[in-house]
Amino acid sequence: MERVRGMYSISETAELTGVSAFTLRYYEKIGLLPSPKRQNGKKDGIRRYTDKDLHFIRFITGLKQTGMPLKDIAMFAEGGCVLLQDEEERVEDVAAMFAKRIDILESHLEQMDRQMEEMKQVKILAEKKKKVYEAFLLEEIQKRKGV
């Protein structure tokens, strides 16, 4: 199949974003991703993703990697990637959408801060345990050598 510049098949999109074709279809099904353009404009035509779609998929993937639940990502993603839309494509009430997204991000950032603090405490504990084990091993080695 001949590739149209700036348009990607689902397999190309999967490869470029690291998100499987199955997951892309699932995200589309649950409304996390808007339906992509279709080849020849047919409802059952081959999905064709744009560079803007790839950018948005990568952003959604980033949110997911931070632990944001899919339901929050879906709320956040309503209206698509507004900053990449042309003026005439933008939803009417951008200010309200941005306020909603700010609330979602603030809540998620607070959650990430809590998780980071918990991880910091776990790391401190793991480092202490490691030192205990190292000291034990050193003591055992010294006993065996008769030091």
Explained architecture:
By secondary structure, this protein is mainly α. The protein has helices at 10-17, 21-29, 51-65, 70-77, 94-145; strands spanning 7-8, 37-38, 47-50. The protein contains five helices and three strands, in the order βααββααα. The radius of gyration is 24 Å and the shape is elongated. 63% of the residues lie in helices and 5% in strands. Helix 4 packs antiparallel against helix 5 (94-145). The protein has a three-stranded antiparallel β-sheet with strand order 1-3-2. The model has no long low-confidence stretch (mean pLDDT 84). The longest helix has 52 residues, at 94-145.
Give me a quick take on this structure.
This protein has 147 residues and is mostly helical.
